[in-house]
Give the backbone structure.
Amino acid sequence: MKQLIIINGPNLNLLGKREPEIYGHQTFKEYLEDLKLKFPEVSIDYFQSNIEGELITKLQDVGFSYDGIILNAAAYTHTSVGIGDAIKAITTPVVEVHISNTFSREEFRHQSYISPNAKGVILGFGLQSYELAITSFLKV
Ligand code: DQA
């Protein structure tokens, strides 16, 4: 069984009530339950933190044994050299996801420290971005 993990960064614990016109009305907990039902053949772990160092520690913990990491580093995408370096350091492939189309938003969101080191990037499909990322690991 493939072992994947979804890692969500800051403020994504507020999905469902945070700017619903951008991020939708569903909580991540609800969505994760749907995902697990949709992909019974995959093990999907989940981790969320608002703290940059905790995200780096989790990447290090899973990054030499898991089959894939689906990472939405949220605002840290645009600022964190440390998360970018962690992705370079580990061997598990990382797919970067975003709920919104960051390129249609403010200019500071066009910069990503994740993308150069990611296997691929999926953005702008709402919560479905995560599902597309899981599918990308199944096709390998
Ligand atoms: C986000 C986009 C980021 O720019 C923003 O800071 C987020 C969420 C997204 O999923 O669309 O918190 O990563």
In short: The first strand starts at residue 2 and ends at 8. The mean pLDDT is 96.
